[in-house]
Amino acid sequence: MTYNLQLFRRSQILASAIAALFILGFFFPFIGVWTGIILAVWFAGTQRPLQGFVWLLALNYLPSLFFDRSNFPETGVVAMLEYVAWMLAASVLTVLPFTFHRVVSPRLNGFLSTLPLPLAATAVQTLVQPQLPLELNHGFSVPASLIYWFAAVIIWMWHSEFNAEPFLLAVGIFATIQTVALAVSFISFLGTSTQPKPFEVGTPFAWLCLLGTAALAIYSLVGPGSRHTWTNQPKALARLQSPNTGDPLQFVHEKDRDELRTPSGERFPIRNGIPVFLKPADLTDANHKSNEIYEMIGGFYDDIQRVFLAFKGLDREAYFRSYIDRLQVKLGDSVLETSVGTGLNFKYLPRGVELSGLDLSPEMLLNCRANLRRWRLEADLFVGNAEALPFADSAFDVVFHVGGINYFSDRAKAIREMIRVAKPGSVLLIADGSEKHVKGIYETMLGKFFKNRKEAVSPPVDLVPPEMQEIHLEEFRGGQFYALTFRKPNTA
Question: Cys-Cys with 391: which of 249, 318, 373, 395 at CB 3.0–4.6 Å?
Answer without folding.
Answer: 395
